[in-house]
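--- STAGE predict ---
source: upstream dedup step, 1 unique chain passed
mode: sequence only
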Amino acid sequence: MFEEENDNKIYRLIITNGYDKNREYAKFTEQIYSKTDFLWKESISGSYSTANKEFFEKIDVIILLAGLYNNNKENFNDLIEASKNFDIPIVLVRPHGLEEVPESLEKEASTIVGWNANCIVDAIKNAEEMGRI
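--- STAGE serialize ---
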């Protein structure tokens, strides 16, 4: 019999937030909180465009909630730039209830995922493993 390996890593995430009329941020965090075997911590900065190198070097994965993009483009662009500058993988989450994502975000993402909690956690783990070497 094989036992499933227990992952005790605490994943450090940046999750896009901002103007969110559909409460996608709350829905997303609810999904990953439901995975009690997945340990994570959210890192937040008042301004990602001015956050220092030490802040970004601690980040494992950037989560872009595509449903927030149209009303928070500057924040998204700052995080995409940080991803490039500090080699941080991006997990792009489709808008809640929709399949299509903005093409400009799709080309920046390491992976794209829907709203299934297991898929989200797998995407974060896989993106982080493939990210920094």
